[in-house]
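Subject: two folds for Thursday's group meeting

Dear M.,

Sorry for the delay on this. The cluster queue was jammed most of the week, so I only got both jobs back this morning. I'm pasting them in the order they finished. Each block is the input sequence followed by the predicted structure tokens. Could you check whether the formatting survives your parser before we put anything on slides? The first protein is the one we discussed after the seminar.
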Amino acid sequence: MHISAFPSARLVVAGVPTPKQFIEFIMALCYHEVYHAHRLNNSGQYINEGHIVTINSNCVPLTEHKLFCQMAHFRIPVISEGRGS
């Protein structure tokens, strides 16, 4: 991932972050004091781990396949029967 505020920095990611993950990342990066006050305890651990699990959950169900896991930019949504594509 490239963030224009840091032109010479590139971050290695396992996939494209969800909107929730991206906002959480930006809050932690740009507003670290506020983020720490609301999300972390004095030892740097998450105050509410369940909330972070929710942020990191998939927005849509994904088809998992060994090949797809190797391709960071390629995730296949699962289409439920009865729903149009």
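Second protein, same layout:
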Amino acid sequence: MLNNEHLLSFLLEVDADFSPPLSSRLNLAAYANKIQANAIVVEDIIDGNLIKGIAATYANDESTRTAYLTFIAVKTCFRGLGVARKLIEKTEHILVKKGFFRLRLEVYKGNEAINLYKRLGFEIYKEDSGSYYMEKDITVQKCFEDER
């Protein structure tokens, strides 16, 4: 299981991969603490300690059963290998088991991840001058799981 020190180290390592960098918007130590305390964290790790990627999702909206993907990142050397897809699929599986119906995220316009999210079934439901807000109905996944 990922501890706070490893999470913060990962955030620092991928910080500059975000535009603008995460640290320009967030205190990374506080954000790592918040994620550890409040999010479902899914990671892809090899050899027990090399983190390829991490996804963190808040699943606390019990009334609408909507979860929010607050963070996802894959180290540069592992991009294009399906790591982000795997992280999102693992997250969806956990959310479906917890009774959630929808997964939402915000992505900055111009971020190349938009195409990945679209391929994974996310649709834009709102936009502003800088961001797209995307969502995916994950109840469809539950139907497929029920067939197995």
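Two things I noticed about the second structure. The beta strands are 40-46, 50-61, 66-74, 102-108, 123-127, 131-137. The longest strand covers residues 50-61.

Cheers,
T.
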